[in-house]
Amino acid sequence: MSKPITLYSHATGPNPWKVAIILEELKVPYTTKFMDMADLKKPPFEALCPNGRVPVIEDPNTGITLWESGAIIEYLVQTYDTKAAFTYTSSPERFYVSQWLHFQMSGQGPYFGQGAWFSRFHEESLPSAKKRYFDQIKRVFYVLNKALEGKQWLVGEKCTVADLSFVTWDMMVPFIFGDDAGSLELEKNYPNYFAWNKRLLERPAVKKIAKDKTEASASH
Amino acid sequence: MSKPITLYSHATGPNPWKVAIILEELKVPYTTKFMDMADLKKPPFEALCPNGRVPVIEDPNTGITLWESGAIIEYLVQTYDTKAAFTYTSSPERFYVSQWLHFQMSGQGPYFGQGAWFSRFHEESLPSAKKRYFDQIKRVFYVLNKALEGKQWLVGEKCTVADLSFVTWDMMVPFIFGDDAGSLELEKNYPNYFAWNKRLLERPAVKKIAKDKTEASASH
Questions:
Q1: Of the candidates A145, A73, A34, the residue with the CA atom closest to the CA atom of residue B98
Q2: What is the ipTM of this complex?
């Protein structure tokens, strides 16, 4: 039995919860330290992660401290998914998993994040900036919907970390779009995407994290 | 001798050139197909990449078609860098390479790209949006400068694909900041970053690609 990994997290930010889902799926023991945003961009946290963001993990079993959720996921599967239950060791499949993981990191997370910024946090209302990111988010739905045509999962015949990496940002859609969320008509406009996201949401590990996140949001 | 890889590229976009630098460093033969932006988000290109973006590679030696520059870089080093000249096979070093590559993909590229968008392409002038991204770009300089304190390269004692992945977006700083570029005072404010970027720019492979890009920009 391995010693628990420490996961530095935040009550509402989607990226640490993405890592928590992978830890749950892999049944790797972990403890969560919830950080306040105000403490991230200064010492001592900056010594763990010069980027001043969560997630960060510390793994006492290997001694590693690592940040960037995509890199943490690669570390976790290479270290703990020894039977490749959530990835592939064969080529080209393992590179397709990497491709979708990088698309999540560079194409989904940043655009969803900027959409949230301009709809919820920016100092002034900028309708054309908000529209830009809402349109980009719809493009992400379009790309995933197209890639999932006739398929249950992004790579091969099983759920991999590539699929799982998208779900915590997808959970943010109602927050990002607010009153505009209904007009997305996800089930009608992006049926493959919608069914895939529903499959992900029904997984016990994803359900547990959704519940943990709701509880953490209420108490932090 | 391996058959040349086809690199789908664009004359000015930094991400395909990032891959070209890795191909040059690894001395992997390749041919470049320059695409017009207008042809990316429709068939037949969408059949290669549902995301409708470059880079995409086709490797006749393995039969793979792959997109997302970060995933392409991982594929290239795992397939062609058999002596790990530009990466590590040891732990934790190989995970640190992954960490910085993911930071480039999720933390540098997207913010630099949005900075370019609001300074150069957006339909209206939005000073507070532009300022947001200029501030985020300065944070990226700050993070890299801090991480490079007392070091020549991001991971260990050699130049890896993690270092190389940043340089084509860094080349865009004058374009992004325009008249504001001088006020960045990169050498004074971020000396470790500045020296590291200079080391990268002096590499023959990077010099060649900078020249190729200038020529492609002039003729496409």
A1: A73
A2: 0.98
